[in-house]
Amino acid sequence: MMKMAEEKTKKTEEAVEETAEEKTAEKKADKKKTKKNKSAEKIEKLEKELAEEKDKRMRLAAEYDNYRKRTSAEKLGIYDDATAKAVEEILPVADSLTMATQNMEDIPEEFKKGLELVTSQLKASLDKLKVEAFCEVGDDFDPNLHNAVAKIESEDFEENKVSAVFQKGYKIGDKIIRHAMVQVANCD
Question: How many structural domains comprise the chain?
């Protein structure tokens, strides 16, 4: 009987050891699962932070690009404004030279050549500054470009056409330095 009792005790001990080993294995498996879950959560958190940082960096790059474009446009605008202001002060000289060259009938040939030379130099200087003169007889009247100081009824011109130019207009690109002073034919 003693042998049987010993065998039962031995079997019980073995069963207890197996159960203990199984519990230990389960605990290890649970720890591994917990570690995996924590690792997965950590990876997910880091990926989210990385995505946020990428987004911030992309927004910063876009803001910088917009800033660079805006300041570049402002610089061009400042240059055009300064050029327009300087040219505006020179335009009376251009007008006087234009009138002088249009009324050169009774002056010596040397004076004519001199006036033509000075006029062409002024035109070349304005061209270098990208200043354009505009408005010719026969152009369509545009209140954005022209300042109508008179109107006439004439069969020689179509409706709303420039019939006389008293003073040329000047512009840099789309910026008007001075509106053209004109007479308009057949307007309402």
Answer: 1
The Cα-based distances of 80 to 84, 87, 146, 175 in angstroms read: 6, 10, 20, 8
Any residues with CB less than 8 A from the CB of 115 and at least 6 apart, and which? 97, 100, 101, 104
pLDDT digit string (tens) for 113-131? 999 999 999 999 999 999 9
* 104 lies in some domain: no
Closest CA to 178 of 90, 96, 99: 90
Query: Does residue 185 fall inside a structural domain?
Result: yes
**DSSP labels, 41-80:** HHHHHHHHHHHHHHHHHHHHHHHHHHHHHHHHHHHHHHHH
Residue 2 has pLDDT above 70, yes or no: no
Q: Return d(Cα 123, Cα 87) in angstroms, integer.
A: 12
CB-CB neighbours of 169 under 10 Å: 21
Task: Look over the chain and give the mean of its residue pLDDT values, rounded to a whole number.
Answer: 85
Q: Indicate which CATH number applies to the domain containing 187.
A: 2.30.22.10
In a domain, residue 167? The reply is: yes
Print the domain residue range for 180.
132-188
Q: Where do we find the tokens 């030379």?
A: 117
* 129 CB neighbour count, 10 Å cutoff: 15
